[in-house]
Amino acid sequence: MAVLGTLLVAHCGGGHEEHTVDEAGCEHIVEPFDAVQETATVDIATAPGQTHEHVHERINLVPFEGGMGGFVKFPAPAPAEYTMFFDSFITLEVFDERQTPIPPKFMPAPSQLCPDNIPVQYSYDLQNALYILKLGGMGYTQNFVGVVIEDTIRLKGH
d(Cα 126, Cα 82) in Å, to the nearest integer? Predict the structure, then answer.
C-alpha cells in the first residue's frame, strides 16, 4: 500500500472572536503543527487518511501521476460551504464516495488577505458526507502541503 503521509494537526485555541472564512484560514495556516499520525493511500478506493476541519494539517505526499500528491478523505460534519486553504499552489479535485467529481463553487484563487501564505484556495458546497480529496500530481514537486479547511457554519461559533 502506497502511503500518502502523516497528518499533523494544530488545534484552535479558545477565546477567538468571530472571523470570516478568509481570516480564519490566514490565522490557522501559519500556526505550528502538533503531531497526529494518519496514513493514506494513492488509491482513491482505499484512502484511509482523514483531513480535519478548522485545524492546520501537513500532508506528506508521495510520487503520484507524474509529480507528488495522493488521496486523503474529508468527512464534512454538516452541510455547508467549505473553503480549503493551501500553503503552496497545488491542484485539488474533490469526489464523493461514489467517486463522482464535485465541482468547486468558485475558481481556485489566492487568499485576498494573505496571498503569500495561501497562494490557492478552493470552495465547495458539501453535504454531511465523506469526500475524497485528490491532491497534486503532474508537475507538483513538493513532498508535503499544508491545508486548513473552514466552513461558514462553525466560524459563527468560533
Answer: 7
From its phi and psi, is residue 105 left (phi > 0), alpha (psi between -120 and 50) or beta?
Answer: alpha
Residue bearing cell 503531531: 35
CA–CA dist 92, 83 (Å, integer): 12
CA distances from 136 to 8, 68, 80 (A): 18, 6, 24
28 phi and psi, to 5 degrees?
-80, -25
Do 139 and 89 touch, CB atoms closer than 8 A?
Answer: no
For 57-102, the pLDDT digits (tens) are 888 888 899 999 999 888 998 999 999 999 999 999 999 999 999 9
Q: Record the cell numbers describing residue 58, joined without a space.
A: 501537513
Using the predicted structure, report yes or no on whether residue 35 has a pLDDT greater than 70: no
Q: What DSSP character marks residue 116?
A: T
